[in-house]
User: Fold this.
Amino acid sequence: MQNDFISGALGTGEAKAIVRNVKEKIMKSIGNRAIFFTMDTHGSDYLDTIEGKKLPVPHCIEDTDGWQIAPELLAPFGDEGQGPVKIIKRTFGSAELAGELKKCDEKEKIEQIELIGLCTDICVISNALVLKAFFPEVEISVDASCCAGVTPEGHKNALSAMKMCHIDISSE
Assistant:
């Protein structure tokens, strides 16, 4: 839920439209669940990377405004240091997220993982499948009302593909 995917370089109307749903879900989850934000992160050499050559739109350049999590989504956490865990990721899926969740699972068995965010058809599906590989016996779900794809068609296709891979899809 970084600025560049909402209103910045790769922003869409669909992404803007889910911000309220995401904020409501975060507010309901604080204190009840561990919350992680993955942060797509690129350097100034982005256009020289494979991704940059296939998607020549600089975005989520580290330490820029577009790289930041939308401030309204961090506001519910206040300034008390109780905020979400932020995980830098340099590609679509995050092995680091899986690793952090493995650490949590060692302390207390994880029974369910829910994914929300942007973009359904790139990062959400990638992370859902990475997590399914790490946690094959954990219920993994995606709240479609808190996701948006690059296009509405891409969003629908990604939800369908995840469902085929035993990821539960809801629309709360």
User: Anything to note?
Assistant: The mean pLDDT is 96. Residues 120 and 134 are 20 Å apart (CA to CA). The two ends are 18 Å apart (CA to CA). The chain is about 40% helix and 15% strand.
